[in-house]
Amino acid sequence: MLLRRTATVLAGLFVLFVLIAPSDLEKFTFEAFLRVPLEGLIGVMALVLVPDRFRKPLAIAGGVALGLFTVVKIMDIGFDMVLYRPFDLVLDWPLLVPAVDFVDVTFGRVASVLAVLAAAAMVVGIVVLASFSVLRLSSAAAGRRPVAIRAVALTAVACVSLAVPGVPVYSDAAATSLVDHARRFQAGLQDQEAFAAEASVDAYRGHPGLLSSLQGKDVVFTFVESYGKSALDLPDVAAKLAQGNDRLKAAGYSARSAFLTSPTAGGGSWMAQATLLSGLWIDNQQRYRNLVASDRLTLPRAFREASWRSVGVVPGITQAWPEGNFFHYNEIYAAQDLGYTGPRFGYATTPDQFTLESFQRAERTGEHKPVMAAIPMVSSHAPWSPTPDFVDWSALGDGSIYRTMPASNDPPESIFGRDPAAVRADYGHSISYSLESVISYVERYGDENLVFVFLGDHQPAQMVTGEGASRDVPITIVAKDPAVLSRVEGWKWDDGIRPGGSAPVSRMSDFRDQFLSTFSPPRP
């Protein structure tokens, strides 16, 4: 008897927790659980009033549904922590493949297989537990029908009579979540058609004289990982930008800065990079797959067709990258092509300073054809610790110097087990390092023919930004030739390498056309 009662109580607590628990960890407060789930009351009544021969099948079906709902809620929590949004039942399944690939590359094939098996076991276990819980509660309620009916009725009356404005007594969170997921499911099914319509417009395809105003220039686009608007107010970053602005001015450079709204936050760098380079809004993996299977004119392709040598320097790529063919680079330098022999620093395969030095050695040493480069840097990728020291450029060599520095192979998710204040401090330090790499590169290797654009790909995780942060990231264009900066005056960007609070904000997908129209003749 005691065992049955204990099982009933535990089953009730499990169902109560699942129905009431928020999909945002920051809302996990004591008060959030002091509510009555309306869905639970309806479920109890349904199981009590249904004929006995239908009760068990209905309870099993309800338990399976509750288990799957629990799995989706866990996914919602995970996606909210990293990407600032709930899990999408249509569009987000492909993101699980890169997650498995990351484990495979970082920890090995055995670890990735074990991770998949553990995830599958967890899903099955949750569904079984939910089914058992609903079955147990249905048996207990059916055995005391009059008591169960009176209890539900009294609870419902209490919820209505005790309701006070601003103080919720009941919860319909589960039903609201289901409705929201249903709406996103429908939108996801329609997204492919919407994207096809957007992609059908490619105004600069075949445009004569494309990029003619930049002839003879080396044009570099550098994506600073996780460099979001929130970084600008951190002491390390603010000081680095102020100091860097003065240094670049002293070296004869001018700069303009603004903000772009990224299609993603907390992760998904490849989608942000594809958005900027293609001029299309890439905010899910389905759009990314459709993009790389298309014939869209990207910035690297536009430069290549205008007689530049177009290269991609991608230290985050550690295995085959067939999507790289879509961008039409003349050359792709993946992690293994950069000549780095030092250790990893967290996620980063190569320190940012070494990545820029490798690019310089390969493409901008001595007499060379004008080059356009897209360089995603990775030192400021989570977990943001440890960060390599900045060293003298002449001492970089093959990267052996980094073996003298503290290194690690910690995965990005390790930030969630650390003190948030320490994580924010490490984040600011890593962004400062990446900015120093950019600023110092321009100082050391820049000349009249260098046009350097650096920007963030997305905001960092909410642990750093806090709840409600925008998706805006800084973008800066630096050049010594005054003719280049005079052409961007119409953009109304702020002077210097730090955009102010009122600097212009545009969608990241708008940048391609803005850049092409500025440095190309008017369209016929």
TrEMBL record:
It holds the Pfam family Sulfatase. Residues 274-461 form the Sulfatase N-terminal domain. The chain crosses the membrane at residues 32-51, 58-79, 110-135, 147-170. Keywords: Membrane, Transmembrane, Transmembrane helix. The keyword Transcription does not apply. The keyword Cytoplasm does not apply. It comes from the Bacteria. InterPro entries: Alkaline_phosphatase_core_sf, Sulfatase_N. This is Sulfatase N-terminal domain-containing protein.
